[in-house]
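Weekly structure sync - notes
Attendees: PM, LS, DV (DV joined late)
Agenda: review two folding runs queued last week.

Item 1: First target. Sequence and structure tokens pasted below for the record.
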Amino acid sequence: MPELRKDPVVDRWVIISTERGRRPSDFIELVEERSDGFSPFAPGNEDMTPPEIYAIRPDGSPANTPGWTLRVVPNKYPALRVEGQLNRRGEGIYDKMNGIGAHEVIIETPNPEQNLAELELSEIENVFIAYKLRMEDLRRDIRLKYVMIFKNYGHAAGATIKHSHSQLIATPIIPKQVAEELHGAKAYHDLKERCIFCDIIRQEVKDNIRVIYEEEHFIAIEPFAARSPFETWILPKEHHSHYEQLDELTARHLAITFKAVMKKLNIALQNPPYNFVLHSAPVQEDQLSHYHWHIELIPKLTKFAGFEWGTGFFINPTSPEEAAQFLKEIEV
């Protein structure tokens, strides 16, 4: 059973996932993919994953067989497990609990050679709808407080399987970074009675310095204090704190925005590895007037080293204004 342990100094929780463990020698070389191009996620290999939780099957084929266009399965090597009780306990000054949660894989396409940005708009839309449906389902489990959806694309971004997929991890606590974001947004709202993210959108549209893409429902910007080159945020223009409030129309426009942003980044940076994370409000809370869900997308162009680890400062060698100007000039 994985275990959650709390750092007593900074209140940061860490997942000790021994079931995913490696011997010291295993860290010397991590291979991104098999040399023969084999994918355990490809159609015909359904028995190589745990049974599917959700799938889109236009041909009405049975579960766990070929015929799907999108498939969600539990992670075969989960960081957290659904089964069991939290069993919060102390060990002297230390706090810990069982590693209860959920860890799922969203297989975005049956084609091992396609990536998310290359899919048709309807297929990208289906991916975003799948995120919503899984979050709605997991919020029924009152043990779970937060659902983080993220994507690692490319070896440098942490991907270990080339076949296009994203992941979901649900936790029984609100992650420290998210808690800090929620706290900062609430402090701003308490002072000004406005959502900080809505104010950011209004100012960025007015200034038009860091906006790289805008359409009716979404805006994409290079954030003012970007942590790394070409960090990009995608925000809905209408205020919603929870991603689960996404409807089909908004999902379509999110797909349009994501595809446009990725086309710009791929042209500018020659198909870079990247991470994206979906920041949404805690699943057990009602609509929040001070928070605004959004996607943070970070191309992996630099590495965090000793200074970043030791201070929490980020050194960005490319200003967001320069990055925005470069991306603006790319037509999509």
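Item 2: Second target, run right after the first with the same settings.
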Amino acid sequence: MPRRDPQERGTDFVEVALGLDPELAMAEAERCLNCRHKPCVSGCPVQVPIPEFIQLVVQGEFEAAEAKIKEKNSLPAICGRVCPQETQCEEVCVLARRGQPIAIGMLERFVADQASAARKARKEDSSPDKPEKKYDERVAVIGAGPAGLTCAADLANYGYEVDIFEALHDTGGVLRYGIPEFRLPKSIVDEEVEYVKSLGVNITTNVAVGLTMDFNEMLASGEYAAAFIGTGAGLPYFLNIPGENLNGVYSANEFLTRANLMKAYLFPEYDTPIKVGKRVAVVGAGNVAMDAARVALRLGAEEVYVVYRRSREEMPARHEEIENAEEEGIQFRLLTNPARILGDERFRVRGMECVKMELGEPDSSGRRRPVEIPGSNFTLEVDTVIVAVGQGANPMLTTRVDGLELNKWGNITTYDENGATSIPGVWAGGDIATGASTVISAMGAGKRAALGIHEWLSAKRGEA
């Protein structure tokens, strides 16, 4: 996909990827073999009818293509931007065996953007025909992230009244506070959320279920026949090394939330400042680490290092995001592990002591285990450290629900593929159940939970 010049884009928060034009999109769509067995659909966590929407692109029917996607996926403009298609639908594309799979993600983004532009040109909103309310039961959804939004949209389409409760002051969860503007513009999130609301879903923000609203009382009141918990993984992990309490050390969660949800990148236009020094170290090599490094660069850092204890081959971030970071001048310090963070007399970060690593035998993850090289310690001169080594389950709700079983990591234990929990009538999905994963995986969990809720309520009504 065409991208903006690295020198230009590294100084602002405007979207990096430019998208396809109709000529490129139709040419790419014509490569599709329209396979009988449709392996790409099996590779999609939400079962988008991929060959069908691609054939509509070939015909130039872009709005119809978007409608076809929305039969299974309520957030196509988001998925087309942040879904790791290369390890899912595109990985199993028949043409991948010959070298280059169909660019399914790019085409999904293209049709969503084209349909949106066409509606705006006609001065129409994105509202579909509101689904008929078929059932009296009301369902509560906790969390307005990708899992919650998907579950709510599917339940509304089944015919239920749905209320989403969101703790933060805006919707989207990780889509809004975790992913930077240059990868996923907030206007896209707003538009996709408006689509979900147009289905009849009610969204209430600034309600922290578990704190300002009691989940146990919510269930006991009888107002809600069922509930879905999709509160995500909002508990940041740290390195547990000396110096992590110094000023200038952030979790990636805090850093990105300040920059995204609190608009710190627009300071002083907005009141939330974020201090970024001249030399920044980001510890970790996943997509969140790439996001944090690229945000630090845009906020004025002169040098940004990604510090990772394994080699490039083991980096968990998408190849596209690694390439983008590298093009923008992010420096990779691979086979390097932090030992301690050093501070000055004012308790501010002045450096990070690191040790060089080498790869040994594979560990339980299948990746070669990093082994410390004795005597290889050195100091990396930095004044800001951002820790991006993963997140744990958000405990705000889960620790306050009677009878809700959790695993040893604090994630909600589920008992079937639809996400049924230890409490009858309560389902869970996304990062709160699986641990940190992808947006599309969370959406798939939300979709399966909606089906589970519908089947359970139908059985209670005595329907087949």
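Discussion on item 2: The radius of gyration is 23 Å.
Action: LS to circulate a short write-up before next sync.
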